[in-house]
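Summary for the funding panel

The consortium committed to producing paired sequence-structure records for every protein in the target list. Below we show the first two records in order, beginning with the earlier of the two.
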Amino acid sequence: MQRPKKARNRATGERGFTLLEIVVVLVIVAMTGAIVFPRLTTMAASFEFASQRDSFEQALNGLTYRAYRDNDDKTLQGSYSAAGRDIEAKQPRREPGTTLPPEMRVRSLAANSREHLPPVTTSYAVLPLPQGWEMVIQDPIYFRGSGYCSGGTVELFVGRLQYTYRLQPPLCRAELVE
């Protein structure tokens, strides 16, 4: 059996496509689209979440610099949501007359043995959180105006997911704990 010849355009002498070839190409394109399009929305949501988490990590990493730049001691403590710091959450209280932990004391660079204590009245640090996210810090994390950070643990809750970040002194670079 002989294959049918492609149709020729009489004016230009070029060959064209048969109707069957065009239909086969359209079916292949439709099948590929049916597989790819449903995954595009999932992929876009995944990219958006990754971008938001990256922004959160950058803001968390920038707290030490912000305290240094503003020469203002900051504290990260308690529960935070998209609305800001939750004042109603139970905050640990210090007894009057107690000092801050020893890692917050600053030794003088001079030859004397004078010890400087940080101010007890620090401002609370605020991190922008997307809607539905919650951040909890059990033990206070202090960011000194000198650029020192006491370190600690930050727990981030996004729906059913939980991420734990460890901040190591002195600069408190956020590391995701796996």
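The next record, for a separate protein in the list, is shown here:
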Amino acid sequence: MTKESSALTDERILQSWSRNSDPWVAAVRGKEIASRALATDAAIVDAVRSCAPRTGVDLGCGEGWLVRALPEVSMVGVDAIAGLVEAARAGGGGEFRVMSYEEIAAGRLQLAVDVAVCNFSLIGEAATAGLLRAAPSYLRPGGTLIVQTVHPLVSCGDAPYVDGWREGSWAGFSSDFNDAPPWYFRTLASWITLFVDSGLRITSLREPVHPDTGKPVSLILMGQLPG
């Protein structure tokens, strides 16, 4: 692996997900991710439904499970990884497009939906910031962006509680996974600042908890575009 490809960058995230798209589809559809089955899947569905949307977009849709979990919403799923979009189209339930966050930030998505969802799909640095700043290009006035991400206090581990790149890990996943993508850690304050600086008014902050440990398993932020 070259020095450039091993760097902690948004580009390396895409490289890793391209290599791991098949095992990811198998893991999601086989319900192999315990935290999702116990709490986070239901939490994001409940967050979307609390907005009573008619239209929506799943940004970083993966293999499309969330689109199919919301049959009452006219959904578009978008992902940069062609293999994941192919699996999503095969599963049906909505429209699916191959498009990167950089392309969305440049205004190419051209939607005006009630709700945009990023479910554990914002792990980069510049790409994440660009996607949030582009909210007016895919949300209608008064629409809501919903982000579910790892909980900063829990995911920080023993590292300092400051923004920065972290090495990824497939611990707990099958041996079919390799070359874990890096991810950009953000504190709670940084997430809030990112929403506010993108022109989104935070209307709700949720912390789903593990039913057995009582510890938070994720953070859900909901921000509304001015009407």
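Regarding this second record: The chain is about 35% helix and 20% strand. The domain at 10-224 is CATH 3.40.50.150 (Rossmann fold).
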